[in-house]
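Human:
If only I could read backbone structure tokens as easily as an amino acid sequence. I am handing you a single protein, as its sequence and its fold in token form. I hope you can help me see how the letters and the tokens relate. Thank you; the sequence and its tokens follow:
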Amino acid sequence: MEAVIKSERNLCITHILPIRDALDILSGKWKIPIIVALCVHKRRFKELHRDVQGITAKMLSKELKELEINKLVKRTVHDTSPVTVEYSITEYGHSLTPVINELRDWGMKHRDKIIYHPEEV
């Protein structure tokens, strides 16, 4: 019996830890909208700031650094005058597309259930 409990605990840990890792990387209300904006095409900081409505420049800078550390976003500095910095999604960042699409689909169904059909369980 103890072996079964230990096995179940290990199985739980092997499922929970990767989910926690993913949530740690994508947590907050800004990272996924930034990734979605960059999936369309690369952008300069000001373009991204304009496209991700409601985010402050300071928060955008912080989030971009974290996404870059986690290899989801690439920062490219162009030797122009003045210097131009572009952000783009990495190939690894594109691997989040199915996850983001599933979140969007679930969110749409949830919104429909809560707002338009609250009496259904």
User: Anything to note?
Assistant: The longest strand covers residues 73-78. The domain at 29-116 is CATH 1.10.10.10 (Arc Repressor Mutant, subunit A). The mean pLDDT is 91. The longest helix spans residues 2-26.
